[in-house]
Design a protein that fits this description.
mainly beta; seven-stranded mixed beta sheet; globular; Dockerin type 1; 45% strand
Length: 212
């Protein structure tokens, strides 16, 4: 696990600022191919000046609740072709994997901030089958999720609060049941990236998707 006062995972092509608070300095390429990485940052969760690639593993990011920061921030391309990504934080700067990715992603900017220690759960279809759940430790207004479980043409509801069976685990988990939550967003997957709510972050590539 990575806990950072300022930036979490930081990849830059050049950096001569010795006082900058970063966790990882790289050649401008940030890559994850396996394992479980959990980032909790007071600033940007991921801040890449170059290429970001994810081909496997699980990446969980809890970014800042300050709109000046984002759970995911990058200048080049975020190519998502495998694995599971969940990022929660403020809605001011957060970005999602690029629309050139091979795997489906969703970016949900909610109308209101959700308090920390509140379960979030993604439910599939009218039967509201739980797909994933997580218990963020911080407040958040934005949720980014990418997984092979997201399927073209399927509808999903993001609900918060309530309770799951079994109870929440340390990481992402798939509960057998979920009840008594409050629905916050509803989307239908039609593109590589589907969005919900007001998009505030600077976008290098056009967002494609449905804003309900």
């Amino acid at each position: 696990n990575i806990v950072a006062v300022s930036g979490g995972l930081n990849s830059k092509k050049e950096n001569n600022d010795k006082e900058e608070d970063t966790f990882i300095e790289g050649s401008g390429i940030l890559s994850l191919s396996g394992g479980i990485v959990i980032v909790s940052a007071g600033g940007d969760g991921i801040d890449s000046r170059g290429l970001v690639t994810m081909t496997g593993g699980t990446l969980i990011i809890e970014g800042s609740s300050n709109d000046a920061n984002g759970a995911i921030v990058y200048n080049d391309v975020f190519e998502m072709s495998g694995g599971t990504l969940l990022a929660v934080g403020s809605s001011g700067m957060t970005m999602a994997p690029s629309i050139t990715s091979k795997q489906k992603s969703i970016l949900l900017n909610l109308k209101e901030t959700v308090e920390g220690k509140t379960v979030l759960c993604l439910l599939e279809g009218e039967d509201r089958i739980p797909v994933m759940a997580y218990l963020p430790s911080k407040s958040y207004q934005s949720v980014v999720y990418s997984s092979p479980l997201l399927l073209e043409g399927k509808s999903y509801t993001l609900s918060t609060g309530g309770s799951t069976t079994p109870k929440e685990g340390m990481n992402l988990y798939t509960p057998k049941a979920y009840e008594d939550g409050i629905d916050k967003a509803y989307i239908t997957i039609h593109d590589t990236l589907t969005t919900y709510g007001e998009m505030k972050a600077p976008i290098k590539l056009p967002l494609e998707g449905i804003i309900e």
